[in-house]
From TrEMBL:
<keyword id="KW-0378">Hydrolase</keyword>
<protein>
    <recommendedName>
        <fullName>Phosphoserine phosphatase</fullName>
        <ecNumber>3.1.3.3</ecNumber>
    </recommendedName>
</protein>
<comment type="pathway">
    <text>Amino-acid biosynthesis; L-serine biosynthesis; L-serine from 3-phospho-D-glycerate: step 3/3.</text>
</comment>
<dbReference type="InterPro" id="IPR036412">
    <property type="entry name" value="HAD-like_sf"/>
</dbReference>
<comment type="function">
    <text>Catalyzes the last step of the phosphorylated serine biosynthetic pathway, i.e. dephosphorylation of O-phospho-L-serine to form L-serine.</text>
</comment>
<dbReference type="InterPro" id="IPR006439">
    <property type="entry name" value="HAD-SF_hydro_IA"/>
</dbReference>
<dbReference type="InterPro" id="IPR051400">
    <property type="entry name" value="HAD-like_hydrolase"/>
</dbReference>
<keyword id="KW-0718">Serine biosynthesis</keyword>
<dbReference type="InterPro" id="IPR023214">
    <property type="entry name" value="HAD_sf"/>
</dbReference>
<dbReference type="GO" id="GO:0036424">
    <property type="term" value="F:L-phosphoserine phosphatase activity"/>
</dbReference>
<keyword id="KW-0460">Magnesium</keyword>
<keyword id="KW-0170">Cobalt</keyword>
<keyword id="KW-0028">Amino-acid biosynthesis</keyword>
<dbReference type="Pfam" id="PF00702">
    <property type="entry name" value="Hydrolase"/>
</dbReference>
<dbReference type="GO" id="GO:0006564">
    <property type="term" value="P:L-serine biosynthetic process"/>
</dbReference>
<comment type="similarity">
    <text>Belongs to the HAD-like hydrolase superfamily.</text>
</comment>
<dbReference type="InterPro" id="IPR044266">
    <property type="entry name" value="PSP_YsaA"/>
</dbReference>
Length: 258
């Protein structure tokens, strides 16, 4: 019998990919107005430069362990206590400027001043555009009171709490919120799932994990012996990781729990 549902946050309840996409669109429009560039071409260039820079830093292995992606580095502040979060905080201003400046250079524009302007603009646009899937609250309303609900999210505590602050309706649904940066390891490490079960006071057979990422949410649940629901909104191909259930719309979860 399922007693608790464990939810991922980004791209499961929050539509983080859309928020990042809109932030890129709005920021790249500034360069379009200034130089007539194709904003899509600039976005692709900045994404590439951001990934390359991000993986070159000494904090990269820590960011991978916690589950922080390069584009979160373009707007997160990382005002957390851990020594490596403090290092990331130190790196962030130059990282952002370099990613945008190099992205501009990659499409033939050598303008570090504009690079710095865009680097400062992107975090503003990301905070202005939080998106929540339309079915999120309908599903949470039906589950609240019938199951314990736990939010299990990878990332910097400061950044993930910022996301919850700018979408304040979500947090009250949850009995517990666990952020990988607080715990010290992220999904798919089974230890963070075991920690979640301890918080809930239940056995692994009594929990159900719901998430969009096969390699973090589902793989981690599998390793911890927790049944899983993969929400595959975009008809992605499966890899070697197999969820217990697969759905394309969050409302289908209610049928699994019925």
């Amino acid at each position: 019998m399922i007693k608790a549902v464990i939810f991922d946050l980004d791209d499961t309840l929050l539509w983080d990919q859309k928020s990042v996409q809109v932030a890129f669109e709005e920021t790249c429009k500034v360069a379009q107005e200034r130089y007539g560039v194709d904003p899509n071409v600039l976005e692709d260039a900045v994404r590439k430069e951001a990934r390359d820079l991000y993986s070159s830093y000494e904090t990269y292995s820590f960011a991978q362990l916690i589950g922080i992606n390069p584009f979160e580095g373009l707007w997160g502040e990382f005002s957390d206590d851990h020594e490596l979060f403090q290092k990331m905080k130190e790196l962030v201003p130059s990282y952002r400027k370099e990613a945008w400046t190099r992205g501009l250079q990659a499409i033939g524009i050598d303008d570090p001043t504009l690079g710095e302007e865009l680097a400062e603009r992107f975090p503003v646009e990301r905070r202005k555009h939080p998106f929540v899937y339309e079915e999120t609250f309908e599903v949470l309303n039906q589950l609240k009171g019938n199951y314990q609900l736990l939010l299990l999210t990878n990332g910097s505590p400061h950044l993930q709490n910022t996301k919850l602050t700018i979408t304040p309706e979500i947090r009250p649904y949850f009995d517990h919120v666990i952020i990988s940066g607080d715990f010290g390891r992220g999904k798919p490490d089974p230890a963070i799932f075991e920690h979640a079960l301890e918080k809930l006071g239940i056995e692994k057979e009594e929990a159900l994990m719901v998430g969009d990422n096969l390699m973090t949410d589902i793989l981690g649940a599998n390793r911890a012996g927790v049944r899983s629901v993969w929400i595959n909104r975009h008809q992605k191909e499966r890899n070697e990781v197999n969820p217990t259930y697969e759905i394309t719309h969050l409302e289908e979860l209610l049928g699994i729990l019925a």
